[in-house]
Amino acid sequence: MTIRFNTDTRNLIVDSLTGNLGYATLRVYSGSQPASAGSAPTGTLLVEIQLQGFNASANGSAGLATGTQAQGTASATGTAGWARLTDGTRNIDGSVGTTGTDFIINTTSIVSGGNVTLTNCTITQPAN
Fold first, then answer.
1. What is the CA radius of gyration of the chain?
2. Of 115, 80, 112, nearest in space to 95 by CA
3. SS3 helix, strand, coil % of the chain, rounded to 5?
4. CA 87 centroid distance within chain
5. Which pLDDT tens digit goes with each residue over 67-123?
6. Mapping DSSP to helix (H, G, I), strand (E, B) and coil, where does residue 126 land?
7. What are phi and psi for residue 19, nearest 5 degrees?
8. Is the dihedral of CA 83, 64, 15, 100 positive or negative?
9. DSSP assignment, residue 64?
10. 63: Cβ contacts below 8 Å, ≥ 6 apart
11. What CA–CA distance (Å, rounded) separates 71 from 54?
């Protein structure tokens, strides 16, 4: 049997999650994503980006807060392979790239000392 959520419940879940992680840090790593979000990170930490919050959810999804720019200065040089949104305890792992990924950044060719901008990220709770 499948559990299903109506839109109000999906919005509640997303708003709770983004309320707790909305000002968390996105850490971008080189290499391959670990097996689970509870596993130790793999690869080299390239950049940390402090989020500036999320918009209120609609239809079970919430994107980055309108009008904010989340940017970080790279601490290492490498190619972005995956990213982890974390508050130090709770983690969300996902793909990272310039289009069509979970975390959209302005470049995947990261150079130490350069600026990296998180341009888009949407947290979604599926209906089932």
1. 15
2. 80
3. 10, 40, 50
4. 11
5. 777 999 999 999 999 999 999 999 999 999 999 999 999 999 999 999 999 999 999
6. coil
7. -65, -35
8. negative
9. B
10. 54, 55, 120, 121, 122
11. 15
